[in-house]
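Re: the pair you flagged

First of the two:
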Amino acid sequence: MPVLRSQGLDVVTIGRGDTADVRADLGTTVPDLGGRSGWVLHAMGHAHSVPKTEAERSAFRRVNVEGTRNVVRALEQVDCPGIVHLSSVAVYGRAEGQDLTEDCALDARDPYGVSKRDAEYVLQEFAARRGCPLLILRLPLVAGSRAPGNLGAMVRAMRRGYYFRIGAGEARKSMVLAEDIASHVPRWFGRSDLVNLTDGHHPSLAELERRLCEQLGRGRPIAMPMSFARALALVGDLGGDRMPFSTARLAKLSTSLTFSDKRARARLGWAPRRVVDVIVP
């Protein structure tokens, strides 16, 4: 929000937090906009957790899908000149691949990916019915200060001295800077499209590790041989959901998954920075 406000925008926030201008639990409540109208940046979402129970799995649908329905119900009562929606590349349901485009099938099977896909459908139906511009931005791992998710876990492990590289760290992952997204969004209000956003560089895990170690003042991490990592993952599989490391987790860390942002560059003038040049843990 500070980046948006720094561009002179009058930002009204909706959420559960004490600092929100409009207080509402969107997963259960239609927010009262008080007649306000204007461009909508829909960034709400439940993420960065692996569900272990049915209640945890249903939370993704309640927040991401039903929460989006409640946003739409609120927008039905006001003038809405356009929506920018922050979605996720998780909608593709892919564990590996290179330069995947927006034309890939939406094969998500996990609760998070399915919920983000269905949230897109809710907004697309509303936009088509109302003739409202809708721009869907599908994001990979988002980097920035105090980043959540896998990047945040990597930083915490490095700070505490128990981070290990898996093999040579050659797997490449698409990433994007949160600040770059925020700085571009105001230029895109009123646009209708569906695009992937990345930094276009897709750093390898080894490259990302080197950059983070430099900034944290840490030495190069110890490399865990792949043979040992596979054995450890098998032990994790036996422990079920309680274990932090498994064959599935190993596959995620050792395979490349990158997405193409050529459509965003050509149609929207997307000009991001490389994450490894800017990232601050």
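Second of the two:
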Amino acid sequence: MLFGLYAPIPMATVGSPEAVSAAREANLPLAPGARDKQFNFCEHLLMEADRSGFELCLFAERHLGCDLAAWTLASAIASRFENMRALVAVHPGLVDPVMIAKLSVSLDRMCRGRMALNIVNGWFDEEFRMFGGTVLDEDARYKRSGEFIDILKGLWTQEEFSLVGEHFHLDRGRLLLKPAGVPPEIFSVSAGDKGRDFIAQYCDWWFINYPKEAQSADDVLRGVEDCITDMETRASRFGRKLRYAMNPFVAVGRTEDEAVDTAIRRIQDSEPDADPRKIKLRMMPATKAGLMGPAADVRRQLQRFGDLGLELILCKMIPTAENIRKIGEEIVMPCRGITRPEKLALCDHA
């Protein structure tokens, strides 16, 4: 089993006074010679995660926000990783696919072949309009993303590539820079029927959504099993196989209650005015996976997910160096061997 974490930017972070402070100061000038607090915080924690056994970092993107741009942040930090891959978010329709193809292989070569893309089909209409995108209905968004990925893969693998689609036209496109090795993998998330078909046809990894009706860890397990069964049926129609990921909240403590309470207290300390009921809702449904509590219990639950075919845990966590080291030592390193034997072949690119 593989383990990753989010780059601790304000949009993707809870329980961090550093992230709160960085967000408050983001629209203010820096003192002479100073460097952005958000960058310093990310650099410190992500290098600690790289040393602690984590294997992937998601650089999420919120254009209309105070977060540092994902591509800039990944380029500044990920080239120094010894173990982690950089998973960078991209919104088809905001940036030309040929440009993303070039940015991707540039970062891939800087990261020694450890770069991947997280395709975000878009839901934030105001952000799309403000940053030059076109707001489309659901069908058209997925069609656009499919053409986007076709162009990426065509440019990564062929000397010349052309496409005449509904949303993109490319005539004899070329990249004079190629990926470091195999082309970067494509990740995405979607719960709906049309989104699942898009993922089955175009993506390498699926971040599985939590079942809305789940009330317990066993409910989540059953939901994940149903999702994987459904997706494997869909992918087989395209002659493809996928790999599966999930993004639960992970916390280690002597008991489950202690782990949950410690996380909530940390969030309250970071945001003193936050309503405790809202905090629990904010952490849900990621806490329902049963990965908060004694390390042995968390490892057993991870084995159950691994038995279903889940291969990547993208950890939501309280972002401190101490917590990263603890989870790395007690969860990440002991659980590396978890896998379902018949899933090993899925590392091949479809």
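Confidence is low (pLDDT under 50) at residues 343-350.

-B.
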